[in-house]
From TrEMBL:
AB hydrolase-1 domain mapped to chain residues: 69-272
SUPFAM superfamilies noted in UniProt: alpha/beta-Hydrolases
Name of protein: Alpha/beta hydrolase
Keywords: Hydrolase
InterPro entries xref list: AB_hydrolase_1 (IPR000073), AB_hydrolase_fold (IPR029058)
GO MF: hydrolase activity
Record organism: Runella aurantiaca
Keyword field contains Transcription: no
Highest rank taxon of the organism: Bacteria
Amino acid sequence: MKYRKILLIVGSLYMLAVVASSCLTGRMNDKEMNSYFSKSLYQPKRHFYQALGRELHYVEAGDSSRQPILFVHGSPGSWDNFKSFLKDTFLLAHYHLLAVDRPGFGESQAEGAEDELKNQAEALLPILKRQSQPVILVGHSYGGPVIAEAAIQYPEFIKSLVIVAGSVDPALEPSNWYRYPLRYTPLRWAMPSFFRSSNDELLPLESELKKMSPHWGKIRCPVVVVQGGKDVLVAPDNAKFIKRQLPHVKVTTIWKENMNHFVPWSDPDLIVEGIKRATD
């Protein structure tokens, strides 16, 4: 009886999460993409590529001779979490813009999530290698530790990092008790695939962050942190953790006290400001 009550609670939380997350996980088809970008100077182009023995997907827009920026979404999410940035007139005038579907999401859904940060970083490597110069990485939420791991593993391909509401301090990770029933009970198969992927990669995140913690000293590029004081999903003190971990590089913090977790939608101008500072 107690077990069934737990499942009921978890199921209710799950349904609420699906509704709340629906704006984060849509797969934009070609017709929708063409319509959304119809007045943009550049129509985005889709690319499929191989990494980790699987097919993954990203989108690019703008002049490929300009400074490349790669946007990395959170969990759950998809490339089009950053669609407004890919038609931003300032960014298009100065940068080559790319946004990826991480493994398990968007057009990279097949085969599910990668639950190790080193694999998440490796999934970005072919995109980084295709660029003519080192890339500015912008990572939101779970995308924050992904781009930090990429900077640890592949520093030669990265110009700077913009970590937006990134969950990087293992000591600040919230309890994950409710994720176990979502992975190890039949309830798992009632979930959409994107939510299974999100649950699978978030469940081991604390242990993955512990593995990454001793290696922050390998990051050699400038870092910009964008963080809100009203973030209830990622502890705002993650910004302080990044500063402590990187005394050897320039770390710039853009702080807004009344900002929540959903910065790409609520405060996109702060991400643009972070990109400008990451370019200097």
